[in-house]
Write a structure and sequence with these properties.
single chain, alpha+beta, 7-stranded mixed beta sheet, 5-stranded mixed beta sheet, about 25% helix, binds dioxothiomolybdenum(VI) ion
Length: about 750
């Protein structure tokens, strides 16, 4: 049985539980100084005057950097690339860093409240933080646009993105709607949210001559390398980015934000390594957020529930400094087989920090609207919500008119419904009670695209029999170390205990951003190919060696098993892989691989699908909502590791509980500043908020998607969950909540 797929423990588990896994702020550098950012207190205007004398005179202060004295950069806003990366980049643009415009102390302009406007560097963190309080800034404030209703009066079309056009359509939606027996026309809203990884954003910058090393917590070491290089006008080879562990990212560490370059500016100014760690409150503004959305969903169906028209119009908030589009319509474009469809994406610009990718950007927010609307339609039709979805099952990609690489959604509905006990549901709202407690059952479809990008890897066998395999990828707590070790062990024919997989360093072969749930599908094939190439080299070396028991055999005559090369015809003829290395001179034997996607994406539409079923318990007096159980069934291709896969999907569902019931960045719209910028007031689910989460992974074979058959499981878990909760809340109470999060006050009134 192959090691790939087995639910082995994380190979880095011991490091984590013993606290010896080194996170970015924990790298020990001699003579390190500490930088603290000073943030603007107005949303828009100019810095009229700065008085840093008091701060500069404080003990231990090494520098106070502002736009007046900071070194001039080659690119004043970092990269000029607009939303060019992440999962949405063009294949031919994969070298462009996915970086919004940065604010790097290059000008006096203030674009949003909380923007870094000064940087205090001192010999201790406490002294830097203290002095940061004493930098005096005077502003020439200008009227800021912080009213979404007003911003909507000047809507803009987003710049076209590959796979993400601002407008799409097929058939004639208006005519189909006129003829439809049943219609719903509904408005859904989702709030601004912040990512809140447990590990805050942190960078240590060190210059050695004109070479820069960044210890940075990031989902994209190569992106950070390119952004830093562009900022300082240096070739990327002069920048090294190191990141062996990431304590959660959720998209906020997929782009390189201002503080990364600011740490390097500070290190240059004080001629010492500089550590810059954002505190929790500083992470609300300068490092991205999920934008707020307003989505209109119009559905038309015949009496049997067959959809004739889908219309999905999205407005999402963006920022003056740079654009980001929350692509909510992506789900509606592919999920159901409607003859006519019309979608649009529009942007409403606010004077806030630039929004960014967060936990299935588009699919999470879009599926809330679409899957709520489908439930509302099911009630109008007096039809079971699962039956309605089956009646509109898309047998092929309805937009591209090409087959799916694989799709097991029917089996997901069946397996999920069976495990949940859906057949026992009384559809009448309020009909299922447990004493005074209102009980609701709701469901929704889940989906996320199967993304892939080019990636490289190297594999080397050392004379001691250890295989070192490297790729410049990331482990966000997701299991990359473990899964890549499994893939390498399998391809090499070695026990996993002899594999040392390494990642998180730009001196390694390049891998793409760990976003868009694409790490396994991108890096996995590169690791697989490098390990295969190494195995082939070992076989070639052994069979060419006149003293080897395998001498003279052809490549196909030799097998690699458990660290040995073995003659297929006669297993007594065998040699240890380590012996092959020592006999060949003792230098490591090395093989490289570069894995790119072929044209399969043109021929097949590649998505993961699932179905999620939720039970809610609501206190009728105070409106509190508990979710005692969730069942999620998913078709995600081949499972790489049963344990980490279940953990990923479970984690996604927990995000969904947060999105559905708790998460909202509460802005004071007079000032454009978050008022709940801490983990006491910004609610995320804790253990007590999560009931039983039951994950089913259905058997699915996908021969088209990549050589591993893996679709990626990072984000699909969140999709559909907020809608399933909203649908369950309606079932329990008869109240339809179309505005996230579904808090007790909305259920009570
Ligand atoms: Mo994910 S939001 O693509 O890091």
């Amino acid at each position: 049985m192959s090691i790939v797929g087995q639910g082995i423990d994380r190979v880095d588990a011991r490091l984590k539980v013993t606290g010896t896994a080194t996170y970015s702020a924990e790298h020990k550098l001699p003579n390190v100084a500490y930088a603290v950012i000073v943030q603007s207190t107005i949303p828009k205007g100019r810095i009229a005057a700065i008085d840093s004398a008091a701060a500069e005179a404080m003990p231990g202060v090494l520098a106070v950097l502002t736009h007046q004295n900071a070194p001039r950069l080659a690119k004043p806003h970092g990269s000029e690339t607009k939303q060019g990366g992440g999962e949405q980049s063009k294949p031919d643009q994969k070298q462009s860093p996915p970086t919004p415009k940065l604010t790097l102390l290059q000008e006096d302009r203030v674009y949003y409240n909380g923007q870094p406007v000064a940087l205090v560097v001192a010999d201790t963190f406490e002294r830097a933080r203290d002095a940061a309080q004493h930098v005096r800034l005077r502003y020439a404030a200008e009227p800021a646009l912080l009213d979404f209703a007003k911003a909507k009066q000047k809507l803009r079309r987003p710049e076209p993105q590959p796979e993400r056009p601002s407008d799409t359509g097929r058939g004639n939606v208006e005519r189909s709607l006129q003829r439809a027996a049943t219609r719903v026309d509904l408005l859904y809203t989702t709030p601004m949210e912040n990512h809140n990884p447990i590990e805050p954003h942190a960078t240590i910058a060190q210059w050695e001559g004109d070479r820069l090393t960044l210890y940075d917590t990031t989902q994209n070491i190569s992106g950070a390398q390119r952004t830093a290089a562009l900022s300082f006008g240096m070739p990327p080879e002069q920048v090294r980015v190191v990141c062996p562990f990431v304590g959660g990212g959720f998209g906020s560490k997929g782009t390189t934000w201002s503080h990364v370059v600011l740490a390097a500016i500070a290190a240059k100014a004080v001629q010492r390594p500089v550590k810059l760690v954002l505190d929790r409150t500083q992470m609300y503004g300068p490092v991205g957020a999920r934008p707020l959305t307003e989505q209109r969903l119009v559905l038309g169906a015949n009496a049997q529930g067959k959809l004739a028209a889908i219309r999905h119009d999205t407005i999402s908030s963006t920022a003056t400094l740079d654009d980001f589009t929350e692509p909510c319509t992506s789900v509606s474009r592919i999920l159901y087989a409607s003859d006519s469809l019309q979608t649009s994406q529009r942007l409403a610009t606010l004077d806030v920090g630039v929004p960014t990718y967060m936990r299935a950007p588009g699919e999470a927010s879009g599926s809330f609207a679409l899957e709520s609307a489908l439930d509302e339609l099911a009630y109008r039709l007096k039809m079971d919500p699962v039956a309605l979805r089956l009646a509109n099952y898309a047998e092929k990609d309805p937009e591209k008119d090409i087959p799916w690489s694989s799709k097991s959604l029917r089996e997901c509905y069946r397996a999920g419904a069976e495990r949940f006990g859906w057949a026992r549901r009384n559809p009448k709202p309020g009909a299922m009670r447990d004493g005074r407690t209102l009980v609701g059952w709701g469901m929704a479809t889940a989906t996320y695209p199967a993304n892939r990008k080019g990636a490289k890897a190297v594999a080397a066998l050392l004379p001691d029999g250890t295989a070192v395999v490297r790729s410049g990828s990331h482990d966000l707590g997701t299991g990359t170390y473990t899964v890549m070790s499994q893939i390498a062990a399998d391809a090499l024919g070695m026990p996993i205990s002899r594999i040392r997989f390494q990642l998180g360093d730009t001196t390694m072969p390049e891998a793409p951003v760990s976003g868009g749930s694409q790490t396994v599908a991108s890096v996995g094939p590169a690791v697989h190919q490098a390990a295969r190439a190494l195995r082939d080299k070992l076989i070639a070396t052994a069979t060419a060696d006149t003293a080897s028991p395998l001498h003279g055999l052809g490549a196909g005559d030799v097998n690699a098993v458990d660290g040995w090369l073995v003659a297929r015809a006669d297993p007594s003829r065998r040699v240890q892989m380590s012996t092959v290395v020592t006999r060949a001179g003792g230098q490591p034997i090395v093989a490289n691989a570069s894995a790119e996607q072929g044209d399969e994406k043109k021929r097949y539409s590649m998505h993961a699908f699932g179905a999620v079923f939720v039970e809610v318990h609501i206190d009728p007096d105070v409106g509190t909502i508990h979710v005692p159980r969730v069942v999620g069934a998913y078709g995600i291709g081949r499972m790489m590791n049963a344990k980490t896969t279940h953990s990923q999907l479970m984690g996604g569902i927990v995000w969904g509980l947060g999105m559905g019931l708790m998460e909202k960045t509460e802005m004071d719209w007079r000032f454009g500043r978050a008022v709940n910028a801490n983990l006491a007031d910004y609610h995320v689910p804790v253990n007590a908020d999560c009931g039983a989460i039951d994950i089913i992974v259905v058997d699915e074979e996908d021969k088209q998607i990549n050589e591993l058959g893996a679709k990626g499981v990072g984000e699909i878990g969140i999709t559909g969950v907020a809608a399933a909760i909203a649908n369950a809340v309606y079932h329990a109470t008869g109240k339809r909540i179309r505005d996230l999060p579904i808090t007790p006050d909305k259920v009570m009134v």
